[in-house]
Amino acid sequence: MPERLSQDDRNTLLRLARQTLSLVANRQAIPALDPTDFSPQLAEDGASFVTLTLGGSLRGCIGTLEAYQPLVVDVQTRAMQAASQDPRFPPVAPDEVRRIKIEISRLSKPIALPYDAPADLPKLLKPGIDGVVISDGPHRATFLPQVWDDLPDPKQFLAQLCRKMGCSSSHWKYNLMQVQTYRVEEFSE
Hints:
alpha+beta; four-stranded antiparallel β-sheet; 6 helices; 24% strand; globular
């Protein structure tokens, strides 16, 4: 995991995500950012997820696993997408903005998790620590480490991740998939 962000950098990203959420909900233009206006850590390429919750329930969550743009730009992009492009939800309405809680997850680079037999996979995962990406052919899905809070059993975690990927919940039991793990630095309002 890269060096942790300072509290100032975390606050900057949370303010930016909040501003973006408000602009999107009110159908206003999102300003272009100049990464050189921010700290060196925020200007470095970074991968993030932005999660929106309303009354404790998921309201939107979009992210990327690959760091290909400055972290500050990535967080702005993911906040905009979580507010307006998560296919599970309608776009955020203006009257929801003040009640939505924002959580940002900054991801480490995913690393391959080799294994020899499907039965070995649950024992290799670190509940509460690992974010997990699985892929098999055209199917791919990820769960952030925070999902372990709701699915603490590795077998249930894998079953639900397979369902998210568009396969049966038992797919992991009978197939060697490509598996990667990553860590996150999570912070919220």
